[in-house]
Amino acid sequence: MTYLPFSPDPRPLGKSGIMVSPIAWGMWRFAGAGVDEGRKLVEAAFEAGVTLFDTADIYGFTGIEGFGDAETLLGDIFAAAPGLRDRMVLATKGGITPPVPYNSSRDYLMEALENSIHRLRTDRVDLYQIHRPDILTHPQEVARTLEDMVASGKVRAIGVSNYTLEQTRALTSLLTVPLASTQPEFSPLWTEPMTNGLFDLAMADDIAILPWSPLGGGRIAKPGTEREHAVAAALDRKAEAASVSRASAAYSWIMAHPARPIPIVGTQNAERIAEIAQVFGVRWTRAEWYDVLVASRGERLP
């Protein structure tokens, strides 16, 4: 039986020179936990083989308060256990400014970076990403700002999140440092980046793909529609054969794409974080992989 290629070894984060795990852990819902509980989750991710940790200044925001809370909690954990910081590749994001809602101007982003570094109690961010595109900021200004962040030594690599293909292409054409990553929504239930050219651009330009919501916003775990049940059933066939959870099958399906996406696991449950390690033993045949895609499309491929 011939399987699609996959390596559990660390991989380059684009052209940044930074090596990361093939799967990441995200802290969207990290705020609210205490330092001891939060540290257990971080250490569980390390134990599962994760080295890339993704947060953002907006994480923890309730719509009224909590802006920066996830970063603050992680900074408190670093203060209690300083060795954890140097074991991880730390990524954060900025540019969402409720209720405006977005601001990628130079003044704002430079201040946002300083605030993130202060909350995280560190002297640098390994990957700094524009969280969502700001239509009112010219990509030339964004490019110069990101370059200056890298030149300052406070940022090692730069990326974008939720950028369209054309927005990504415009920004990269103006940058003199490589764009290390792009962070689109992608899952067996949302495959548009695979067909709209974004994955193709990433492969051509050696940009790492960091999919968010790899479980379709929880719909893979708890399917509701006929289509969602069909995708879950296709994943279950692989999960049962490999003796892993459906979630692990979904992550491994994403990772089997030749663009080598690095899915961001969002669970805040230590036991489910431990399941991340299961993905490294799952291998897909072409037929199995396409079965999931056909279930997602709801029709046979042409």
UniProtKB/TrEMBL annotation:
* A Pfam family this chain is assigned to: Aldo_ket_red
Q: Start and end of every NADP-dependent oxidoreductase domain?
A: 23-288
Q: What InterPro entries does the record tag this protein with?
A: AKR (IPR020471), AKR_Detox_Biosynth (IPR050523), Aldo/ket_reductase_CS (IPR018170), NAD(P)_OxRdtase_dom_sf (IPR036812), NADP_OxRdtase_dom (IPR023210)
Superkingdom per UniProt: Bacteria
Give its E.C. classification number.
Answer: 1.-.-.-
Q: What class of enzyme is it?
A: oxidoreductase
What are the alphabetically sorted keywords of the record?
Oxidoreductase
| GO MF annotation, one | oxidoreductase activity
PROSITE patterns from the entry? ALDOKETO_REDUCTASE_2
Q: Keyword Cytoplasm, does the record have it? A: no
Q: Does the keyword Ribonucleoprotein apply?
A: no
Q: Which protein are we looking at? A: Aldo/keto reductase family oxidoreductase
Q: Which organism is it from?
A: Sphingomonas tabacisoli
